[in-house]
């Protein structure tokens, strides 16, 4: 069973079109460009952006966590002129999706319920100035400007699979920082059990916020231990550049072992609380979307199977992995929890 | 069927007789041509499989609705030309439905029978609904020829009444798979189908035709032109 593989690249009908070829070639070119463009500043910190698989080993706390100097106002991990990734595949050997695929196929209901809509309709969304208020059950509540997020936290590349609850997936080279680093800075109080995230409410720039599609603003939540897990990041960029608006710029959550809707976009508020937050999708359809929303091929959505998924840009299907392939890092969070009940 | 009468040789005349046929064939090919063009230009979006799925599905549904609109248009307005393109519309609807299905099993599921059975069909009941509609349309497409029409006689009309339940199943298929936030479009299509079926209900149809004919001077064929036995007429005891 586990041997079953999606159609190989040779037999795929959409193999290596022009764009894919370009993106494969880009890292080499962009790497050279990076070295030429910003070697004086970037040289001492270059390994952080390029280190292979920074995602899978807990980053030791210590001096190496210090953020690097900014390049043109951006952390080096976001300062590439052209789409850049340090590797071509994820740790399972599957190719990264192209920059174009990732930025033209988006679920962002504030703008559109079409996948192609957000790329067009989010063009005029304003991401500056931007503040993220961190409050609730914390000792040091604080509002971070985007510039502070850039300078206070060490930005790295994180190659993650994104598995949408709709049974499609992508491999995305995010750039961002550990949510845990931010939480530690505000010092959560012991009674804080959950983290509640809130998206921006901006009806003049987000047309669908005028329609009762979901209860706006979009809200998501994690348990504190999930939020502190080393896989959980706040992403500010992708492919070595700042996030595009349609991806949830300027700062979004990425929780790679959960279905994509947990990874809330355009965050303006992070609250620590002792109450389990009600996610926007749970609020809309509680029997279809639960609080945990861990990727789980054994628990089907009421209207479709979660056993397989289609990688964007490919034909045919592949088996979905428990916890989206991150079982080793996160399964222990759920010891003793019935994941069928807590979907 | 009724279009075989001698036609003037001038082009203008020919177009006047056949504009609806031309429009039907050109219009029905458009979505397919659009898909083919963009397929070869790598322009079907980040997820071509979903684009193919959506375009073929919608095309099949719209063509089916147009096919089912011919008789109501005749009932309400007396306009008969639409009746002549019903077969073409039905066959095109079937063709797009078949492409829709082929996309599902070949491009989406990579012809992996186990995936299709376990994952595609078992957990997605609306797939079975769509498949049932497709089987019905296949039977209608196969027996759409004059030969079958003659061979089956009265049974042909009865068989081709299957287009009504098939239409209902198509709407159910579209509605069922849609997310809560996206139910409006399938509901609109379903409402349209409901209207098209309602007009056919005998008492209502008679009332409408009667009202129309009373308001009209008997200029042209007002002798409640016998509806050509075809896709859309339930068996009439008088015929």
Question: Overview of this structure, please?
Answer:
- The complex is a heterodimer of chains A (343) and B (239).
- With 343 residues, chain A is α+β, with helices and mostly antiparallel strands.
- Chain A has a single domain (18-334), classed as Sulfite Oxidase, Chain A, domain 2 (Alpha-Beta Complex).
- Chain A is built from 9 helices and 12 strands.
- Chain A has helices spanning 18-42, 46-50, 99-104, 117-121, 146-152, 179-186, 224-228, 280-284, 327-330; strands at residues 131-136, 142-145, 156-163, 168-178, 194-199, 219-223, 233-238, 241-242, 252-254, 267-273, 308-311, 318-319.
- In chain A, strands 3, 4, 7, 8, 9, 11 and 12 form a 7-stranded mixed beta sheet that branches. In chain A, strands 2-1-10-5-6 form a 5-stranded mixed beta sheet.
- The radius of gyration of chain A is 19 Å and the shape is globular.
- The two termini of chain A are 24 Å apart.
- Residues 1-63 of chain A have low confidence and may be disordered.
- Chain B is mainly alpha-helical.
- Chain B has one domain (13-214).
- Chain B has 10 helices and no strands.
- Chain B has helices at residues 11-40, 48-77, 86-108, 113-121, 125-142, 146-152, 154-160, 163-177, 184-198, 202-214.
- The relative contact order of chain B is 0.11.
- The model of chain B is unreliable at 225-239 (pLDDT under 50).
- Classes of the chains: A alpha+beta (343), B mainly alpha (239).
- At the A-B interface, helix 3 of A face helix 2, helix 3 and helix 4 of B.
